[in-house]
From TrEMBL:
Domain PTS EIIC type-3: 16-396
Stated name of the protein: EAL domain-containing protein
Organism: Buttiauxella gaviniae
Top-level taxonomy: Bacteria, Pseudomonadati, Pseudomonadota, Gammaproteobacteria, Enterobacterales
Topology versus the membrane: Multi-pass membrane protein
Localization per record: Cell membrane
PANTHER family recorded: CYCLIC DI-GMP PHOSPHODIESTERASE PDEF (PTHR33121), SIGNALING PROTEIN YKOW (PTHR33121:SF70)
Primary location: membrane
Length: 721
């Protein structure tokens, strides 16, 4: 028996949870999921304010201030109507920021698409506030995706020198396409459109809780959409409005002696299935409170007070439940089990049926006491279901809150201190905790926001030296973060941009600012290269060629070359497309270097597939010199690189002994702390000025006091601006 339990546990951990988290990775890397989550997060404050307004209305009504209660209730209706429009606009903002497009045009296109769709579906529609969340989502995504595809096609058809041209033309072209196809659908398939709308309307009736089975569907309708950050109430508002109206009539008839009370009503779900909010999240809060060392306890300061009034958005997005295929299980299971128990207890008359309409924002115990006609049994059942919810949530919470092992340390973005995480109980799941930590999209968004509000990005440069004369022949541009107090943080934050698909934004920023800095501050240095790291995400970004042409529109100083470093240690997802892009870059005069050679994926595959001008040997090659055959191995690698006629540079040389061995292996270019660490732009300018002064002295054989009349390296811009 013990062996059987162990086998089942191994299967659960190694298969079910591993598959769930693999699906989470795919979702986190899906840009449509990103757009939905970003938009739904944007309306969270609106939902919270609406909940507080409803609470204020209930308090005023209880205190006898009926006019104030009515005013607050009308106000919350306005918030409710505004939510879809805000969501639609924020999809456009998210898409514009993510794809470096004009926010104004994206917002205008998104709203225009929404108005067109609204008019098609309802001939009598005069204003677009009367819309649903699904319509707002669909119209926002369709409009912006179509504009993106139109932009790609226009870029292929014509080499645009001005980005404004492509933006304006793609906007009007996309709008024309949407209007044209909408007109065709409306005129040519109006009957089919009406039939489809009728089908969806009848389909939604299936979720209307008229009996026990349909009541189960209603529970799922309210809880499952939260996986994507969508409130089930917002999605099917018509059902809830009709359900509430029917419940009021039923209770009124019962009070007048004209019929029996129904078991199911909106208050029934609010009492038994939404304690703390959808998903019975009051139980989840208690579970977090029980984990004394949990980092999520900081959520309680915001989520616990809100949960008293059944507002659970801070917890759902903060824990998170959203896009978490593990935590969605207890989130759905807990209210579902509560439904079964409460329905059975009501059916058997263990507890009375709902006899009063009580606002959903009323705290749980008070709501149960009032709605049940002051039933002690109902109150005891409420406490029992909260405890059952704790038992369901606890194993999931206990394991989800445990972080990666001590091997997976992390560096705080602002303090620079290492954070050590405790080991997890999921040892049987390969890399389970690592996957959860490294692919938390929401955590990455929070870290990026932390960066953007606490400082600025700056540039550092690390010189590359020619060993024959120790001359600086190239500079690698490196991004750093400078906090408001002046502290410099190394690029550990790049993993968050990579996780959210925003590496192109970083690469484009470095490219634009590095070339600008070279032009303005290093124009006296000649015949050098400025090297920019390009991530795999950027290599397949359709905007890359356009951005490169833009930054190269103004020529570099005499003899300077732009060099792109592609990272061998990161797997390229579309190798055929990458090869085509790199070939186009070389045609523009850009040198291609392979970075971190020997440290990552298909090393030889890179050498044969991609057009390369330089190979940068990883520091692991230098460290390997300490091994018995390390030097011979390095020489063989150098011979291999020589065969494909590439320049060879080795990274990480830190001692004189390592330098001697590197020279003996036939390597000419070097980059390492023995020569120069990454330096601010001003210090690099000083080095280049000194180097040019020595060259002039040697060439003209003049005294130092005469040579000093040469032009120095200018500093017209602040470092990294």
């Amino acid at each position: 028996m013990a062996l059987g339990n162990f086998v089942r546990k191994v299967w659960l951990h190694n298969h079910l949870l591993h598959r769930l988290n693999s699906s989470q990775i795919r979702l986190l890397n899906n840009r449509y999921a990103h757009a939905i989550i970003a938009s739904t997060m944007a309306i969270v404050p609106l939902s919270i304010v609406r909940g507080l307004v409803i609470t204020a209305s209930v308090i005023c009504e209880t205190a006898g201030f009926n006019d104030a209660a009515l005013w607050f209730m009308q106000l919350q209706i306005g918030f409710l109507a505004l939510a879809p429009l805000v969501l639609n606009i924020y999809i456009a903002v998210h898409w514009a920021v993510r794809n470096r497009l004009s926010q104004i045009y994206c917002i205008a296109l998104s709203i225009s698409t929404l108005m067109i769709f609204r008019r098609i579906l309802d001939n009598n529609a005069q204003f677009f506030l009367d819309i649903s969340i699904p319509m707002a989502l669909v119209s926002g995504i369709i409009g912006n995706v179509l504009q993106e595809k139109v932009s790609k096609i226009l870029l292929k058809l014509h080499q645009w020198k001005d980005n404004n041209n492509i933006t304006v033309i793609s906007f009007f072209t996309t709008l024309a396409i949407i209007a044209l196809f909408s007109s065709i659908i409306k005129l040519g398939a109006d009957n089919e459109l009406n039939s489809a709308m009728h089908f969806f309307s009848s389909l939604s009736l299936y979720f209307y809780p008229t009996d026990f089975l349909h009541g189960i569907s209603y529970v799922l309708l309210r809880s499952v959409p939260w996986f994507f950050g969508l409130h089930g109430y917002y999605l099917f508002m018509d059902i809830d409005v009709a359900f509430t109206a029917a419940a009021k009539i039923n209770i009124s008839d019962w009070h007048n002696g004209h019929g029996a009370l129904n078991i199911l009503s909106p208050v029934f779900y609010d009492m038994w299935c939404n304690s703390g909010g959808t998903g019975n999240t009051l139980s989840l809060i208690i579970c977090i409170l029980m984990q004394k060392k949990s980092t999520h306890r900081r959520l309680l300061a915001v989520s616990a007070p809100m949960a008293l009034f059944n507002i659970n958005e801070p917890l759902i997005f903060g824990f998170p439940i959203v896009l978490n295929p593990v935590m969605i299980i207890p989130f759905v299971l807990t209210p579902l089990l509560s439904y079964f128990v409460a329905y059975g207890a009501t059916y058997l008359d263990v507890i009375p049926r709902i006899s009063e309409i009580v606002s959903w924002s009323t705290p749980g115990p008070i709501k149960v006491w009032l709605a049940s006609g002051h039933s002690l049994n109902a109150l005891m059942l409420y406490i029992f279901l909260v405890i059952v919810g704790v038992l369901i949530y606890r194993p999931f919470v206990k394991n989800s809150l445990k972080q990666t092992s001590t091997e997976n340390t992390d560096l705080d973005l602002l303090t620079g201190e290492m954070k050590i995480h405790q080991p997890t109980d999921f040892e049987m799941v390969p890399n389970y905790s690592h996957v959860v930590e490294e692919n938390s999209y929401i955590e990455a968004q929070l870290q990026i926001e932390k960066l953007q509000t606490s400082g600025k990005f700056i540039l550092y440069f690390q010189p590359q030296v020619r060993l024959s004369d120790h001359k600086i022949v190239a500079l690698e541009a490196l991004i750093r973060h400078q906090s408001d107090d002046g502290k410099i943080t190394p690029p550990v934050f790049l993993k968050y941009y990579e996780r959210t698909g925003l590496m192109p934004e970083i690469d484009f920023w470095v490219m634009e600012h590095a070339l600008s800095y070279v032009r303005e501050n290093m124009s006296e240095a000649e015949n050098m290269a400025i090297s920019i790291n390009i991530s795999p995400q950027t290599l397949i970004d359709y905007r890359l060629l356009n951005v490169v042409r833009k930054v190269l529109a103004e020529p570099l100083p005499a003899g300077w070359k732009l060099e792109f470093e592609i990272t061998e240690s990161q797997k390229v997802q579309e190798p055929v497309r990458v090869a085509e892009v790199l070939e186009k870059m070389r045609n523009l005069g850009i040198k291609i270097a392979l970075d971190d050679f020997g440290s990552g994926y298909s090393t030889l595959h890179y050498l044969t597939r991609y057009p390369l001008d330089k190979i940068k040997l990883d520091r692991s090659m230098v460290l390997g010199l300490a091994k018995p055959d390390g030097f011979n191995f390095l020489k063989q690698v150098v011979k291999l690189c020589t065969v494909i006629q590439c320049e060879i540079l080795i990274e990480g040389v830190e001692t004189a002994e390592e330098l001697d061995q590197v020279k003996s292996a036939g390597i000419e270019l070097c980059q390492g702390f023995l020569f120069h660490r990454p330096l601010p732009g001003k210090m690099v300018c000083q080095l280049l000025t000194e180097q040019r002064t020595k060259e002039l002295q040697t060439a003209s054989n003049l005294q130092p006091d005469i040579v000093s009349e040469g032009k120095p390296c200018l500093h017209s811009r602040p470092d990294g601006a």
